[in-house]
Fold this protein.
Amino acid sequence: MKPTVKDIAAAAGVSPGTVSNALNGRKGVSETVRETVFRIATEFGYLKEEQEPASNVIRFVMFKRHGHVVSDTPFFSSLVEGMEREARHAMKELRITHLNLQEPDYRDVLAMLAREPSAGLIVLATEMIEEDLALFSGVRAPMVIVDNRFHDNPCDAVLIDNADGAWKAVSFLASLGHTRIGYLHSAFPIRNFTERGRGYADALADRGLVEIAEDRILLDPTLDGAYRDMLKELMTLEQLKEQEPLRPGAPKDSRRVLPTAFFADNDIIAAGAIRALQEKGFRVPDDVSVIGFDDMPFCEVMTPRLSTVHVYKQEIGALAVKRLLVRMEEDEPVRLVTEMETALVVRESQKKLP
């Protein structure tokens, strides 16, 4: 069986992203690590003296506009695993390239993609906006977009059914008796989070619940960032409870309070927020229920174990390769956009209200 980037990463004691950076000559990798990666890749037979024919190469481009959402996490590693498995079945080689608009040499990477022959490209478009598609205008190979979709784009796309996944999570919280359900929303907007926000709002409306603007809390989509932002929110809430005077005739409990449950844009935001809640003395789920999105491996080892929306990451990666193979064989006039359904995973981070 042909070795994979993950195999090389395990042998070298580094992440798959580091292996990709080293093999593609990217910055941020020490010479010692680079030499180790090349030595292991050569020993494993991953590198060959002669380049593979263009028809045997599929290039996966990990696009970063700002890098606040796309990072070296198990989510994207699982995507790559699904792609590598399907590429091996088709006797193709998957090569990974990082394209970061914050790096000064990103135009050199684009020039390489346009110049180097390949069977086709799969572009991770999580952080992309419509205007970014123009960057790939010089690429002549067939292309499939993953984790996003654009209106005026002739490429096929494979993505998550974000709105339905969020709807499932929020509807489940409502079925447990929660009528005040907040939203831990990413401060960095991407299409995925916008669609999850739509699913959140639809679920509330379908249940006859009122969406309260102050219950949408903006958090940085990193673990430490979400923790810090949630901590600030909780500290502000404490100050409001101490300083805000009661309106004449208003009931005593009319001051601002936290919702009894939160839906989070992803598991990383949920984990950071839970850390802040616990630090301020809130018990999850006894005081506040929380449900995430993505079903990252750490959900199983958190305290409490995080309920979340499962995304079929490997299946999305495999389907993207399958669709690209079709495009390579025939020039279909119709674009195919595929949304992969999600599944609610119930663990321990929610509570049924009396």
Q: What stands out?
A: The chain has two domains: 5-161+314-341, 162-310. The first helix runs from residue 5 to 12. Confidence is low (pLDDT under 50) at residues 49-53, 245-254.
